[in-house]
């Protein structure tokens, strides 16, 4: 009996569980539908029917078809009537990447494989294969064209009424770099590796040390060695930048840089741990949660990211947001002043804290009963009186962005003779008090955030701002970059934002043609 027949007929033993039925079962031979894996079959395929009419891949193809792709076409050299292989249409390549990202497939090899058997990819390509090198190059080759594409997409979404810029929620999220923590080295080690890499590149041109390999392999090895040398040279340049950002000599001497992704920085993660990462900044229009700006930064802090975010939104949509809502990580006095100057209504959380916080007092060893609240201010004489009844007089001022700090100091002999000295100024320095006065813009911001309206708007921030963050990480799977370097990871997040926005358009606007 052949394998085909074995699949078709089975013995009934063991299938009957009831006592009494077993004898009856042993006399029967069960018959199953054939599974014949040896047969050859030719089937006609109607490519357009590989996916149903309401399949989202059709929507993506339709949407990309509405975009002006001339930026991409300009780079194509193959023309009708001349020699050379036909180029892959940018309409196809963009649609492939968008559809792949929407399904969480972010690797060129994976997409190339999917084109061989997945009906949606086959529908896009018309059953043709697409080489993974072509896909990979296309993703990172056209930076300006991709920026332009993002702007165009926002133009179409604005025309559909999905973007108003009346209220924009902005947030930052850390995405891990394509480099592990153990690739970070100090200068000495980087220089040692660079020397080895340079020697390796030099040896490649020497016929005495050449190995017996094919020209293709030799070329690939040479390219890899040169790239390694360039990466290590870049690591030294980045190390200088890292040093410049450190304040103490000890920190400067201990600075380290990744040898695989020199532009990545070690950043604190949401789970409290630290990892090589980039800081992804996302601005989301509150109306329909469309991403109106996305960027990548090397800074672990969000304070410096608000102004560039507003610049990006303006560059993408052609106007500034009417209102921007951020969390405490962005709400500095500098940013309040900057937004006020640009007439962008800033909503955010910020402590009104005094210039001398409880933390500072604690660090100086001051007893809580001698914190600034225990000192009484007299506006007429412009002096403070301390718990011991002594006077602290004005002693200069310090101007900072959005705030002026007025200093008051006690008389040195008063403090030296005071029975409370150990509780009030244990460091043996005459006690001082700092009175901070906010600039009018900052005071207005703080007053606004104390109103019910200000608090109500701020409460809307989380659900809107964190939605695209979560979508990009969970649906697209961008918890870790698949590319290296600031420019390339910037392009990766742009692809992700494009995908997210087109998905929003499909959800809110697209109807299949039959519908
Ligand atoms: S230490 Fe100086 S400031 Fe403090 S309570 Fe005594 S006199 Fe006043």
Can you tell me the overall shape?
globular
Q: Percent helix among the residues?
A: 40-55%
Estimated radius of gyration: 33 Å
What small molecules does the structure contain?
iron/sulfur cluster
Which secondary-structure class do the elements indicate?
alpha+beta
Number of helices: 21
N- to C-terminal distance: 54 Å
State mean pLDDT (0 to 100 scale).
90
Strand content: 15-25%
Return residue spans where pLDDT drops below 50 for at least 5 consecutive residues: 1-17
Give the biggest beta sheet: 6 strands, mixed
The total strand number stands at 15
Give descriptors for this structure.
515 residues; alpha+beta; 21 helices; 15 strands; 44% helix; globular; disordered N terminus; binds iron/sulfur cluster
């Amino acid at each position: 009996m052949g394998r085909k027949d074995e699949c078709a007929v089975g013995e009934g033993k063991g299938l009957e569980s009831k006592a009494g039925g077993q004898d009856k079962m042993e006399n029967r031979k069960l018959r199953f539908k054939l599974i014949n894996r040896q047969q050859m079959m030719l089937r006609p395929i109607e490519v357009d029917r590989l996916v149903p009419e309401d399949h989202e891949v059709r929507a993506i193809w339709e949407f990309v078809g509405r975009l002006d792709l001339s930026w991409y076409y300009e780079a194509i050299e193959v023309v009708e009537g001349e020699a050379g292989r036909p180029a892959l249409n940018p309409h196809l390549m963009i649609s492939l990447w968008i559809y792949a990202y929407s399904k969480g497939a972010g690797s060129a090899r994976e997409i190339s494989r999917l084109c061989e058997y997945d009906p949606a990819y086959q529908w896009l390509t018309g059953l043709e294969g697409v080489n993974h090198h072509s896909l990979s190059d296309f993703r990172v080759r056209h930076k300006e064209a991709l920026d332009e594409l993002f702007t165009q997409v926002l133009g179409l979404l604005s025309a559909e009424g999905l973007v108003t810029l009346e209220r924009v929620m902005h947030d930052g999220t850390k995405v891990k770099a394509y480099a592990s923590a153990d690739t970070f080295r100090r200068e000495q080690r980087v220089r040692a590796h660079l020397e080895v890499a340079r020697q390796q590149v030099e040896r490649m041109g020497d016929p005495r040390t050449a190995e017996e390999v094919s020209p293709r392999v030799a070329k690939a090895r040479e390219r890899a060695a040169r790239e390694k040398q360039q990466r290590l040279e870049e690591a030294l340049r980045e190390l200088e930048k890292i040093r410049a950002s450190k304040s103490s000599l000890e920190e400067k001497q201990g600075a380290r840089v990744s040898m695989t992704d020199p532009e990545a920085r070690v950043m604190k993660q949401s789970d409290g741990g630290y990892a090589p990462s980039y800081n992804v900044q996302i601005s989301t229009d509150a109306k329909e949660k469309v991403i109106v700006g996305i960027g990548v930064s090397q800074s672990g802090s969000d304070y410096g990211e608000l102004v560039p975010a507003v610049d990006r939104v303006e560059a993408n949509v052609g106007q500034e947001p009417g209102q921007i809502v951020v969390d405490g990580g962005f709400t500095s006095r500098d940013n309040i002043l900057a937004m006020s100057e640009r007439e962008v209504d800033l909503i955010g959380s910020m402590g009104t804290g005094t210039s001398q916080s409880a933390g500072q007092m604690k660090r100086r060893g001051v007893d809580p009963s001698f914190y600034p609240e225990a000192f009484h201010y007299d506006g007429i004489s412009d002096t403070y009186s301390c718990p011991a009844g002594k006077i602290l007089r004005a002693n200069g001022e310090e101007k900072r962005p959005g705030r002026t700090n007025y200093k008051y100091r006690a008389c040195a002999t008063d403090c030296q003779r005071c029975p409370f000295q150990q509780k009030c100024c244990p460091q043996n320095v005459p006690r001082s008090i700092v009175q901070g006065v906010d600039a009018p813009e900052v005071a207005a911001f703080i007053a606004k955030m104390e109103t019910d309206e200000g608090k109500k708007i701020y409460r809307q921030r989380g659900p809107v701002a964190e939605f695209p963050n979560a979508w990009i990480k969970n649906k697209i799977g961008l918890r870790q970059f698949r590319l290296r370097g600031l420019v390339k990871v910037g392009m990766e997040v742009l692809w992700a934002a494009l995908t997210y926005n087109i998905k929003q358009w499909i959800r809110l606007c697209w109807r299949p043609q039959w519908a």
